[in-house]
Amino acid sequence: METNVRNKSIIITGASSGIGERIAWHIAENGGTPIMIARSIDKLENLKEKLQRSFDITAHVYQADITDRDAFSNVIQQILLEHKNIHGLINNAGAGVFDYVEDIKMEDIERMFQLNVYALIQGTQLLLPHFSANRRKCHIVNIASQAGKIATPKSAVYAATKHAVLGFTNALRMEVAGKGIYVTAVNLGPVKTNFFKTADPSGSYQKSVSRYMLDPDKTARKVVKNLFRKKREINLPHWMEAGSKFYQLFPGVMEVLLRKQFNRK
Questions:
Q1: The model's pTM
Q2: DSSP code string of 30-61
Q3: Which residue out of 62, 100, 118, 158 is catalytically annotated?
Q4: pLDDT tens profile 182-229
Q5: Pick among 3.40.50.720, 3.30.465.10, 3.20.10.10, 2.60.40.1930: CATH of 9-262
């Protein structure tokens, strides 16, 4: 796989499992330096050891709950002190809870916004001065969701957070135009990760869409392949992106025709 990550230092949030772990793996495999942030230091240390042993590269790990504003700010400042150049930020950490609006708990709403939106914005804001001063190409990648384009029942709040991520990403791209900073949104359908242990504890939704679920390793390869390239969006699976475009044109028709599919959660 041809990439542009060799000798690049790239921060990945939520790097201890799922897509974040696989992104770190492919960055290391291609000669980059993954700088991994997550709550579970044991998982991070284990991954760091595997990456360094497998690819003879240097990896770095930092423990932080990025929903804690002060803790996240402190760890970013620590990273900036310990590393001369940071070239990329992959805002991967996220969570979801699928439930009807009348039933969802306020604490779940607050956590989704804190993790999916506020932490993503905070991390970006903290690193922008460094990226702007770094006279090389830098890249910010925000892991969003196809839910940010097509909201469905029981995902109202989750979809709202991903709508916010898309809006933020599109505006940020225009703000940093001409500063050598690429900004990419990654809009994914369901991915085969531990995300659904929280989002769908019953397992019913995951079971109903199992044949459509994306492979986290293939998804991570796609993200890493497009790092430090001018790419507005990465949309997977392709058929779902086609559906989202049709939805923008004919939302009422789609909601009638796909009512059964939209209510699978």
A1: 0.91
A2: TT-EEEEEES-HHHHHHHHHHHHHHH----EE
A3: 158
A4: 999 999 988 877 776 675 676 665 665 566 788 999 999 999 999 999
A5: 3.40.50.720
